């Protein structure tokens, strides 16, 4: 399964807790920042506002997430989060993530998330919009944005 | 499986994101606060420092956590987190959680976490200390601190 | 200058940093939570939505804040934040705060904030709405909600 | 007063609140990250561990901070925080900061902080260590690390 999008984040002092390493809850923030950066990237590629622009998060809800913690990360460490599209259903899709500590060439965490297209008026799930489905399918087939490298937090 | 410990947390404005509801990463903070409150409670009950006092977190590492999000919570909502001991192994044990929105009598989230006893000197897992194992076993059998109700953040 | 509103917050583990005590930035979250709780309280007292209900923050912007740190606070400590209305201008007003560690009867911090009524359409300051001005003036004269005690985070 | 150190931070989605812009408390985290990056930079320049390495924060305590908020910042905006040494006393020194939104060439905030050298054993202030004092004095005279540009979060 090829990498769809890479995002680099430097660990902040405030991301860490009393143990001096990144707090577990913050890894879910790293996943979220990666998703948002991916959507900004897609918007920059002209994927329309019905699919994946800045407003897209309003159209999807996160219904599940999970993370396995493999090694610790410290303030100032540079992390690379690799996002993959892992499954596509009628109204839901899933991402998988690997978080690498590039300062130490070490795998820090593996994670997953599941997102559902949601009609906030009718208050129920809806099919994934076609244009965004096409983006996801190309990503899953490795035909698309592989090896994008956005350097920043 | 009976409830081992209950903890109440009021949702802060800062816990919420642009969508006006509690951000996904913050639920993992709520789980963590519940675990810490449980350990403080145990310490108050005389469970010794080798088992479950304030320093105990140093003796265990979180290796996995997951959460299913069922409904949203808003600033000022009062949440009740119910913690259960769900499994006990040689060197690891698991908690399960239900987060209720007591302001709306609504289930907000279901979650799990897995913790491993860890020797930081030898850098490898170790057996769960006997005194804490006994606490966990009594909790799992429903013989113990069921229905503790700590009212605070 | 009499106390206008009191709010209690229990220190979370996540509020703390590598030094094991509450991180400096988090004190500004405590101030903010106190302001929001005060507005919720006023809304409950019937102060109308044009003045101080849940939406009021949209009508004011924070333009300045400051804090002196006097002692540290630790996970599980119970803090009491005392808010006072300290000055009222045409379009701006100020709060002052004292943060007490009730677990140790110790003054933790002193702080101030300045807020400006803001017209988001015309993008400029506007006079403080009359109903809210009346609330502030009564608070400043000590004629009002003194010694409110809201127990929770 | 010349700039001592510059640090770039990209605004995270999680840094923002219900209003969609960076929450006031988070600006104090940006200041802190800039200070820590400066200390890491000094450590890399060979300023010894008694003065300004990773452990230096343990030797100083933050006693006061303040911030004026001038414009808002949004998710994905790139901020540049300019740090200046603004005063040096016997046991305390001060930094001043300007936060620029480089995405919009706009001044976002002005801030200050005061730090005191502290003996944690004797629990009282102590003189600023000589080596670090020399660093601060050179910085204040504009003889030193002006226009350092660290690109990252």
Report how far apart the termini of chain A are.
25 Å
Give the beta-strand count of chain A: 7
Described by its quaternary structure, the protein is homotetramer
Helix-residue proportion of chain A: 10-25%
Q: For the report, how would you describe the main beta sheet of chain A?
A: 7 strands, mixed
CATH H-level homologous superfamily name of chain A? Hotdog Thioesterase
Which segments of chain A are poorly predicted (pLDDT under 50) over 5 or more consecutive residues? 49-57, 146-153
Residue fraction in strands of chain A = 35-45%
- Number of separate domains of chain A: 1
Q: What's the CATH topology name of chain A? A: Thiol Ester Dehydrase, Chain A
Q: What general outline of chain A do the C-alpha atoms trace? A: globular
Order of helices and strands of chain A: EHEEEEEHE
- CATH architecture annotation of chain A: Roll
Radius of gyration of chain A: 16 Å
How would you explain this protein's 3D organization?
The structure is a homotetramer of 153-residue chains. Chain A is of the alpha+beta class and 153 residues long. Chain A has one domain: Thiol Ester Dehydrase, Chain A, CATH 3.10.129. Helix content of chain A is 21%, strand content 36%. Chain A contains two helices and seven strands; from the N terminus they run βαβββββαβ. In chain A, strands 1, 2, 3, 4, 5, 6 and 7 form a seven-stranded mixed beta sheet that branches. In chain A, a hairpin with a 3-residue loop joins strand 3 and strand 4. The radius of gyration of chain A is 16 Å and the shape is globular. The relative contact order of chain A is 0.25. At the C-D interface, helix 1 and strand 2 of C face helix 1 and strand 2 of D. Strand 2 of chain A pairs antiparallel with strand 2 of chain B.
